Amino acid sequence: MADGEAWVYEARYGWDLKTTGVVAVSALFTVALLLPTPEISPYARVLGLPLFGVGGLLMTYIAMSRKVALRIDETGVLLGGTPVRYRTTTAHVPWQDITAVVHWRQPRPADIPWVGVVRRPGAAPLTGPGQGRRARATMQILVPHLPADVVLASRAVNGWRLDRARLAAAVAHFAPGTPVTDVG
């Protein structure tokens, strides 16, 4: 293993407490909806089975995909995409475009931690869907306490675990002087 490889930080989608709980509750409701009981209306079955059955299967797929959610290495920061549309929603930000690595929280509708990058002015736009003017306007409404560019260059810590100490060590190794901070 090369010296740099020891410092690489990589987090992958997998089973965490929240994902396990959502899949377990989805399975419980799906089984309950499939039981032949007259107390459950056909409308509840028609609405509940796709919601809980498909939702639980989707969460299982995401956890079992083991795709990269976040990677920090000598080339920069890889912001892993949604596993269902991984190729089109993954973005790589090179170190020369990064001025800081940030942690922040989305207060509503649930308290969700996020990690992202602050990019230098004039950096090339990130690739993929959800990076245009409409997305920026939406982010200014949904997350008014942060610049839209930071929100669009961030990923929710959902379905994977963030080790903040290892992340900070990797940034310090590959981009000395680049701050890792809490914002918002």
Detailed description of the structure:
- The protein is α+β, with helices and mostly antiparallel strands and 184 residues long.
- Helices cover 42% and strands 22% of the residues.
- The protein is built from seven helices and eight strands; from the N terminus they run H-E-H-H-E-E-H-E-E-E-H-H-E-H-E.
- A four-stranded antiparallel β-sheet has the order 1-2-3-4. Strands 7-6-5-8 form a four-stranded mixed β-sheet.
- Strand 2 and strand 3 form a beta hairpin.
- Helix 2 packs antiparallel against helix 3 (42-65).
- The longest helix is centred in the N-terminal third of the chain and has 24 residues, at 42-65.
- The model has no long low-confidence stretch (mean pLDDT 89).
SSE layout and pairings?
Layout: H1 3-7, E1 9-12, H2 17-34, H3 42-65, E2 68-73, E3 76-79, H4 86-89, E4 91-94, E5 98-106, E6 112-119, H5 133-142, H6 148-152, E7 154-156, H7 164-174, E8 180-182
Parallel strand pairs: 5-8
Antiparallel strand pairs: 1-2, 2-3, 3-4, 5-6, 6-7
